[in-house]
Specification:
By secondary structure, this protein is mainly β. The chain has a single domain, classed as Beta Barrel (Thrombin, subunit H). 0% of the residues lie in helices and 59% in strands. The protein is built from no helices and nine strands. The strands form two sheets. A six-stranded antiparallel β-barrel has the order 2-5-6-9-8-7.
Length: 106
């Protein structure tokens, strides 16, 4: 497994993984600080339910640091809070490509 090089992980975000709903609202796991590469750019993406939504940013991190299912909360480096639209695991399958997680944000 080839990991993303540490020099690419220039940003830090905080992820609170979505764990479901309760009678009083959404449940989130403990906050996890994630070193990543953050790209802030508007783009049209498809949510897991098939809707087309505008993503304001996305980040890339190593596979083994966090699970960020849709609806997880993310705090960006400037303090803004956003929500995960979807995540995609990129596994090089043994090729010399960096395995990583791509997380799309509202």
């Amino acid at each position: 497994m080839v990991k993303l090089p540490g020099m690419w992980l220039r940003h830090q975000v905080t992820v609170e993984p979505y764990e479901g709903n309760s009678a009083v609202g959404a449940l989130y796991g403990a906050p996890v600080t994630v070193r990543c590469f953050l790209e802030e750019k508007n783009r049209l993406v498809r949510a897991p339910d098939g809707r087309e939504v505008v993503s304001s940013s996305r980040f890339f991190c190593r596979l083994d640091v966090v699970d960020a299912p849709p609806e997880s909360r993310v705090t960006l480096p400037d303090g803004r809070k956003t929500t995960v639209i979807d995540q995609a695991r990129h596994d090089g399958g043994g090729l010399p490509l960096p395995d990583h997680l791509e997380v799309q944000l509202l």
